[in-house]
Amino acid sequence: MRIEAAPSSDLPLGQSLSLKIKDLDILLVRTEAGLFAIEDTCPHASQSLAQGRIESTTLACKHHGVQIDLRDGSLTRDMGFLYLEPAKVFSVNESDGMIFVDLP
Ligand code: FES
C-alpha cells in the first residue's frame, strides 16, 4: 500500500523525519546516498532511531551505537549485543514534491 508520507521539503539532506503512519513509527532519512524509510524502532532496545548519526547508507542509534544499513536494515555494527534482528525497512520514493512509503 503506497502512502503519502510527507512533503519533500520537510526532509532536508542529512536529516531524518519521524512519522506515525497506520500505527507504525517510521523514520524517513535523506542522505547523499538517497532517501530511506525505516521502522523507527531500534533492534536493540526498541528506542527511537531519530537523532541517530547519519552517514551515507547507515544510521547509528544514539542510545548505544548499533549501526544499521538503511538499504536493507541489516546491522553493520552490533556493539556486541547478541541475537539482534535486522531493522524493518520500507520502499520509499518521491514524486511531485511528495515522499511516498510502501507499507505492507
Ligand atoms: S537502543 Fe539503539 S543501540 Fe540500544
The CATH first-level class comes to Mainly Beta
Instruction: Please state the oligomeric state of the protein chains shown.
Output: single chain
Q: From the alpha carbons, calculate the radius of gyration and give it in angstroms.
A: 13 Å
Total separate domains: 1
Shape: globular
Which parts are unreliable, with pLDDT below 50 for 5 consecutive residues or more?
none
Blueprint of the fold:
Elements: E1 2-7, E2 16-21, E3 24-31, E4 34-39, E5 53-55, E6 58-60, E7 67-69, E8 75-77, E9 89-95, E10 98-102
FE2/S2 (inorganic) cluster binds next to loops.
Salient structural properties:
104 residues; Rieske Iron-sulfur Protein; four-stranded antiparallel sheet; six-stranded antiparallel sheet; binds FE2/S2 (inorganic) cluster
Protein architecture, described:
The chain has a single domain (2-102), classed as Rieske [2Fe-2S] iron-sulphur domain (Rieske Iron-sulfur Protein, 3-layer Sandwich), CATH 2.102.10. 0% of the residues lie in helices and 48% in strands. The strands form two sheets. Strands 1-10-9-4-3-2 form a six-stranded antiparallel beta sheet, with no helix packed on it. A four-stranded antiparallel beta sheet has the order 5-6-7-8, with no helix packed on it. With 104 residues, the chain is an all-beta fold. The chain has strands at residues 2-7, 16-21, 24-31, 34-39, 53-55, 58-60, 67-69, 75-77, 89-95, 98-102.
